[in-house]
Amino acid sequence: MNQQDLPPKPSSPPRTGSLPKIPNGSGTSAPAPESVTWSQTPHEPALEKRANRRPAVWKAFFVVVILAVAGSLVWLAVWLGSSPGTQAPKAAAPGVLQTAVTPPASPQPLPREGVAPAAYAVGDCFKDFDPQALTSTVVACDTPHSAQLVATLHYPQAAEYPGADPLKAKALEVCQAAKLSPAAKQFPLNYQRSYPSTTSWGSGDRRVDCYVAADGGNVINASVLP
Predict the structure, then answer these.
(1) Rounded CA gap, 28 and 110, in Å?
(2) What is the domain count for the chain?
(3) Is 30 contained in some domain?
(4) What tens digit of pLDDT does each residue of 127-148 get?
(5) By residue range, what is the domain housing residue 179?
(6) What are phi and psi of 50, to 5 degrees?
(7) Does 168 reside within a domain?
(8) Within-domain flag for 148
């Protein structure tokens, strides 16, 4: 065949349509067009709303728990207050306080031995005094003695036993209410208190007594009451 009859060879391969050419091995990608926006899936806003509501739900839960605990404590306090044996003890009757001598303090003549505590009177002076003794010796206050009864309080016979601690505190009040004369400054004196026990209270003892006593024995030779 005559080479002149052959069609000439194309100078370049024919294009395959209008598709753009994709670069190979360039290591970079074309940036997205500025007009492209990334859309979210429809369920994501709902998830965000539920997530935002969690703190409010927890706060409401804690409020309910606190109210329940507070209600339980109030109920417990009411129940304890109404339960038998939890009521506050009744206040003891005030009693009758005596701090002055009503003559004669003790029957004459003196000294008198074997005097029981129930017969003690404000102003009595005692030789070799022992507040725990069942009897004492009452002497004239211008003779040597070791103690003197300076104040006493009598509870009503119908009063209920107030307890050891309230009686001890009441005896201190009785001593504080005692009025002493200047003669008390001449001697080293201490207060001594005496009050009923449960046994003596059951036997009718209603006295709370306050004495001034000397630690050195029968060294007092005058009354310390006005």
Answers:
(1) 130
(2) 1
(3) no
(4) 999 988 999 999 999 999 999 9
(5) 96-214
(6) -65, -40
(7) yes
(8) yes
